[in-house]
Request: fold
Amino acid sequence: MKTKITIICENSVHVPFPLIAEHGLSILIENEDTTLFDTGQGFGIVNNLKTMGKDINAIQRVILSHGHYDHTGGLLAVLQNRRDKTPVFLHPDAFNDKRALMPTGNDQIEIPIGMRASREEYEKAGAVFQDVIGLTKITKTISAITEIKHPPEWKSWDLRLKQKKNNELLDDKFSDDLTVIVETESGPVVLLGCAHAGIIEILYDSSEHLSHHMIHAVIGGTHLESAPDVYIERTIDALKWHRVNTIAVSHCTGFKTACRFAAEFKNKFAIASVGAMFEF
Reply:
């Protein structure tokens, strides 16, 4: 059975229809049934599903890539527009108090960027939460992986991203960063939310679980906009080593990095904007 992957929410719109762009990401996976990966900020999710002729009640489960508002903000809207209770897969640390330090001239302000409702509010709306710790088989063809391996001293290069614990602002180690692996007729497809855990580390960890290094496609946010140039070049090398046939980036990749990928990968490259569809 063919697998269809459609971008529901993203920063830009791919087709000239009444779709909504927003800073965020949501991807619909349709194969033996239907899975929603992330929910965007919440402005576009219901509108875009309806506009693209997608039945929100056909969604069998939601998977969340991490606890930031631009990936989880539409969860309540999805739950409230469905008839049935909905399994929601995520790492428990997605509920941590996520913060960002944003520069304002000579100063900076602390902004909450975590999930917009409590666990109890989501459950009241119909969520049935299921933890994803390490590698977790979700369906016959879909797996998810969290707690990506890093050396003890590892930290994200985006120093703005924090979490608050006991009133102390700490670096976010992104243990909750979740990647989806879809087995398709063309080969494994890796779906990234933001790749806060590092795209190189995610790809190597995923291929270790797949027991081979070939990955057919990588789609989603790569969080390379603020990455050092040396890491971007290493990412290109990693994508080549994994023999990635389709690299479709979006959301937090950054214009400069997307252009670099387009020049390097040519017809293997695509922009994963709202309305873009990939079939494998």
